[in-house]
């Protein structure tokens, strides 16, 4: 392929810029023309393209967010929207597209691929919920951000002998909650993959640790559990007598400068994606597995399922007591 495009779609994630940089630089260095698509699939539909060069991506490796902006396109979900996107690609001579985003974005990439524009997906989401990947761009930064913020909450909880009930993102998955919970020594971690039992998983555990003279507590709740953390804090206070406060970390978790891991992996995956397209290989998803970067057929990738590491869940609760 001699002309490609790159877009970011869905929730932004720290490290997306590093991936864009890698895509653009790899393409430029290999004589491939590269367009940046503004605001994800909406930009593809509206023909909102920027021709990128080596300097278009200077000084972005350290920046959170995405310089190409992102969107969750409702129009692209329609047949007409997809047809328009194909048309604008053809008009610009775009032969392949690198899609940086989560599984919703990959479904868009699959649909575009089916309509004759080969796409390569690069996993970018804080949620780490893409089945074929051990890790997704932004996950590591987000975990570190959560850890930093929970550490701060711990300082004040400890000073006041309180219980901090903290909601973290993750959409329907508990990867952020589980790993941040371990890193922060949470007494209880509620994740959607394990049926929520407040009495057993929170109240009984707190009572048990109270008997060992523990006076302050951290409870991490994944948003996907559907638990109202404000109500939970009131319940804990009523049941245990421990003054409790709830915090929803919200979108602070999505911002900030990316960690080393996110920058390095985004660079490797962006580079890998362009190499596939340069070799006329499309309809793939780039994935990180252990320390390797590999690729999967996009249909196969979307049909895979991912399970939470229950051993890790058990270790978390065995140790944080
Ligand atoms: O997928 C990333 C994510 O931050 C989820 O963790 C969260 O559920 C969702 O996006 C929030 O979406 P929005 O920014 O549209 O509110």
UniProtKB/TrEMBL annotation:
InterPro entries: ATP_PFK, ATP_PFK_prok-type, PFKA_ATP_prok, Phosphofructokinase_CS, Phosphofructokinase_dom, PKF_sf. The keyword ATP-binding applies. Substrate binds at residues 125-127, 162, 169-171, 223, 245, 251-254. Keywords: Allosteric enzyme, ATP-binding, Cytoplasm, Glycolysis, Kinase, Magnesium, Metal-binding, Nucleotide-binding, Transferase. It holds the Pfam family PFK. Homotetramer. This is ATP-dependent 6-phosphofructokinase. It comes from Eubacterium coprostanoligenes.
